[in-house]
Design a protein that fits this description.
Helix content is about 60%, strand content about 10%. It has about 100 residues and is mostly helical. The protein has a three-stranded antiparallel β-sheet with strand order 1-3-2. The N and C termini lie far apart (about 65 Å). It comes from Bacteroides muris (ex Fokt et al. 2023).
């Protein structure tokens, strides 16, 4: 094991900067603490709720109808955004049925 020695003043400066960093991170966590992933829905939840296929869900994302967030290649939706498009999906379902198609 290699031993590295530094001056006391340098060590104290490092500790002070680290303490400021910790306080800053704590403040950020408190400010954004109410945003938990438990409130978000994934693709399967949305497809089940709206009774649509994954491809239709992709189209809703692509054309900007449904807002989403992506974390580590997984897509999440806020429940209030999904509720807002229920009427849109129902209208599209009626149009498709009129044309003899399904969505």
């Amino acid at each position: 094991m290699e031993i590295v020695s530094i001056e006391r003043k340098t060590f104290e400066a490092m500790v002070a900067k680290f303490d400021r960093f910790v306080r800053h991170m704590d403040a950020i966590c408190r400010r954004h603490g109410e945003k938990t992933m438990g409130e978000w829905m994934d693709n399967q939840d949305v497809c089940r709720m709206l009774n649509i296929s994954p491809r239709t869900l992709q189209t809703l994302r692509d054309n900007g109808t449904l807002a989403y967030s992506q974390i580590n290649h997984k897509t999440y939706y806020r429940p209030d955004d999904v509720q807002r498009i229920v009427a849109v999906v129902e209208d599209r379902r009626k149009e498709a049925k009129f044309k003899g198609r399904t969505i």
